Amino acid sequence: MAALINHSVRRYLQTSARRAAQVRGPSAVSGGHEGGFKTWKNLTLFVAFPAIGLCAVNCYLDHQNHPHERPPFIKYEYLRIRSKRFPWGDGNHSLFHNPHANALPDGYEDEH
Question: pTM here?
Answer without folding.
Answer: 0.44
